[in-house]
Please model this.
Amino acid sequence: MGWKQQICCGRSSVVVSAMLWPPRADRDPAHLLIGALTIPKVKHFAAIMDPAAFGGLLRAIDNYQGDPAVMAALRLIPYLFQRPGGMRQMEWREIHFDEAVWTILEAEMKMRQPHAVPLSWQALAILADMRILSGSGQYVIPSVRSRARYISDNTLNASLRRMGIPKDQMTAHGFRTSASSLLNESGYWNPDAIERALAHAVGGTVHRIYNQSVYWAERVEMAQWWSDYLDELREGGNRCPSPGPQPRPEYGIGRPMQIGVSRGSPLASYTPRTRRSWG
Model:
């Protein structure tokens, strides 16, 4: 029995137990659900794992022509590798340029826990461009039909199909799988930090709170490294850059802005790391 089925049976038992006293039922029928509820098949989303092929995908995204909001979403999702639903529903109130953080509200998260995403200078550059186009509205990536709504759940996958990328090769959700695979293969990053970046639950509630804080500096470093690595793949290379402080160019259209690193930011103090084995 899967975890969702166990929760269903458990909650049913609680309801029936409340009925047993004072007597309203003579037995607990929830146990009959055991074995009757089928475990859903795990759905694996198609994803590109080969670095060279992923670089080709990034070049195809750069060459894609369409609605500017969709183009921005397609450029952002490889850098941020968050769930497509969260990407589509991104709001300007969640974007903090000064801290270089995207804070996803718990209501929009699968695990109903708030999630903070460190933003590389590449991601901030795209967001700065979008602020000129949609900054006066609620959503970062609004629908072409109505700026008061975000893009539909099929928009990103449909755009990939228009690029000639079949659904059994890559999906919008597959960017998460690609990032997880390539980050782990690099050997630079703690797997728990990668899981936290993906907003996957690691351990119990206390453990998750601890992980969210203890891995933040590493996640900030990893976010910039990952964006730099994608730029390398896009250019046709496959060199894993050594993590460490990188030059942060000006970004934005019309009003160039320089991303500063505050004295208290993890970016101000991190040092290059070497590959290691995480046991």
Notes: The beta strands are 95-96, 101-104, 115-118. The first strand starts at residue 95 and ends at 96. The chain has ten helices and three strands.
